[in-house]
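With this grant's support, we have settled on a layout for protein records. An illustrative entry appears below exactly as we store it:
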Amino acid sequence: MEILVIGSELNLKECQEKFGTECNYQFAKNYSQAKEYFRSGLIVFDFEPDDVSIYPKDMIVFLNSVKTTLTQLAIGKEIHASILGFSGMPSFLNREVLETTILNKESNTTLEKTCSQLNTKYKTVEDRVGMVTPRIICMIINEAYFAIEENVASRNDIDLAMKLGTNYPYGPFEWCDKIGIKNVYELLNAVQMYTKDDRYKICELLKKEAFT
């Protein structure tokens, strides 16, 4: 199986950890580099999607649709390939269940067949900004920053309390380090703009640290 990863070397590493080193991986940092690998049967993981119309038919393309929606990525574009959405923020790909979105019910067959080839479990969620797991985790991180602002507890204590109390693998600040605080900020900002919901109002301390 041949997989093309478009993004960063960190993205490539996470794909290799998720899908195994027995796959044949190609790597490109941008579309100009990626085009030389395009061929029938290729599976693409595009971590920084921009122009989905560049992909030819007979390719399966997973688009990182966390900070936008799959629908928004596709609207107004002439689509040739089979496109699917996935949760591509750092630390969210290499999990037991691949979080995905689809444009229509007809894509279910493609998704099922492709995930079988990739030997991964998957869960289809609603096509919305933030998807499910990234949105929830980033909200928890945001609330943890509010707790720090209000001197509720230290960062280490909050991390420990979350791990012991909820059995999460990481505390909010540990998770923030893995995701990248700027990614957390950008996701929360995108969700707030999409929903107009004050629940996603970004803590000023988080915002400050995202840009320092």
Remarks:
- DSSP finds nine helices and seven strands in the chain.
